[in-house]
């Protein structure tokens, strides 16, 4: 029987995040907390980095709920509401909630990298990459 009162805490340094997780075009996803890295059974946590003037591919996170915290930059989160494209412009300190199965993409129209911290209600980084759901949106060049 496992002693639930005496399990060790796990410390993952920012420099030790791994890119050995599911990826989506246009972004770099780094894994910190998962079943693979620390034995988590219910949570996945990590970061994504979107380069300047770049869009990610369209994707969803399966049955997992996803919470996003904007660490730096000014990412734009894009999803469809019926036939309408909805764009949420975010900045440092903002939070975004992505419900299960909602197709979306991240855009970074700025000239600085956008970094977000992600927490999901699953032990692994579920990512389902999709063909483009919308017409490409041109990011204006400065």
Sum up the structure in keywords.
142 residues; mainly beta; four-stranded antiparallel sheet; 1 helix; 3% helix; disordered C terminus; five-stranded antiparallel sheet; globular
SSE blueprint:
Blueprint: E1 28-33, H1 35-38, E2 44-50, E3 54-55, E4 59-60, E5 66-72, E6 76-81, E7 84-89, E8 95-98, E9 104-108, E10 114-120, E11 128-129
Antiparallel strand pairs: 1-2, 2-10, 3-9, 4-11, 5-8, 5-10, 6-7, 6-9
Radius of gyration: 16 Å
Element string (H = helix, E = strand): EHEEEEEEEEEE
Number of strands: 11
**Strand percentage, roughly?**
35-45%
Mean pLDDT level: 89
| End-to-end C-alpha gap | 61 Å
Quaternary structure classification:
single chain
Q: Unreliable segments (pLDDT under 50, ≥5 consecutive)?
A: 136-142
Rough outline: globular
């Amino acid at each position: 029987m496992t002693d639930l009162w005496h399990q060790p805490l796990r410390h993952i340094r920012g420099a030790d995040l791994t890119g050995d997780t599911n990826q989506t075009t246009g972004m770099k996803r780094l894994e910190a907390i998962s079943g693979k890295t620390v034995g988590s059974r219910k949570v996945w946590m990590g970061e994504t980095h979107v380069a300047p003037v770049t869009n990610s591919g369209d994707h969803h996170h399966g049955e997992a709920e996803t919470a996003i915290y904007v660490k730096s930059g000014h990412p734009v989160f894009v999803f469809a509401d019926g036939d309408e494209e909805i764009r949420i412009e975010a900045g440092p300190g903002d939070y975004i909630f992505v419900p299960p199965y909602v197709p979306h993409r991240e855009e970074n129209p700025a000239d600085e990298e956008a970094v977000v911290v992600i927490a999901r209600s699953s032990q692994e980084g579920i990512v389902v990459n999709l063909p483009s759901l919308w017409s490409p949106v041109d990011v204006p060049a400065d």
